[in-house]
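Friendly challenge for the regulars: who can give me the structure tokens for this chain first? No prize, just bragging rights.
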Amino acid sequence: MTKKEKVDFIIKTLEDLYPNVPIPLAHKDSYTLLIAVLLSAQCTDERVNKITPILFEKADNPYDMIKLSISEIESIIRPCGLSPMKSKGISGLSNIIIKKHNGNVPDNFDDLEKLPSVGHKTASVVMSQAFGFPAFPVDTHIHRLMYRWGLSSGKNVVVTEKDAKRLFPKSLWNKLHLQIIYYGRERSPARGWDLNKDIITKRVGRKSITKKL
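First reply, four minutes later:
Bragging rights claimed.
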């Protein structure tokens, strides 16, 4: 099977399985999405969605957020892990958004990635899901599946993102990255992997992987 045939099969299968893909992180605007994505680092979306209502009840915009002390933010977000770093990041980026961007989340990669605790993946999610800019955020699920499907080397997420953007149509990036995440969670997890449920890997996966199972 050629890479194009693999890509066509993956796109069709994901569209059949997940024709509608809601954004996993609860939010109401670009600011709350930015905070939620920041909190999701090394934390499950499920846990983030339990914490953000508590945080956003106190502060769902940068002006209210800077009224909270870093220790107050940290006490709320502690269940998400890495709370000392994340609380400083949330406070710092809120100040910068007010001072440099008139209270608005910037809608470009350069300014987003200059914000404290905001890396390329976080910026990609905000750009794609808040502003509709074509992006392909690569999380652990996408990184794992691109390797299992023989579409990337698995070397690092930078390479995986480049391969995904090269192989998949740009018009599908924003929806497709969510579809792959849902598929990875439900049918191709890192642990407890059942190849019989993983219909895409069973069809297009690397021989070295499918033979093991």
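The CA atoms of residues 121 and 137 lie 5 Å apart. The chain has a mean pLDDT of 95. Your move, everyone else.
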